[in-house]
Amino acid sequence: MSLYRTVLTRLQAGATPESIAADLDRPSHVVEGILDTMQREGHVRRIDCEATGCSACPMGDACSLAAETPAQYVVTDAGRAALGEGATPEAGDRQ
Question: To the nearest 10°, the Cα dihedral for 27, 31, 32, 37?
């Protein structure tokens, strides 16, 4: 499995960029670079937790990371399609 796909799969499972970097024994800037590419490709959407708070996040009611993490990444329909999963529309997940 490619590193790109591995990161996307772990994001879909709810992992944070920091935990992905640690689990894969990669520098955080490598994972951040992959996330930048994923955003450009439309595979993930970045939610700035510090600026928008939990109200902008589809997981806002269930997230326990907002106080610890300045940003969350949500896998989009295009990202789920890249993983071969069925895309299910979610609020705020439309491009």
Answer: 140
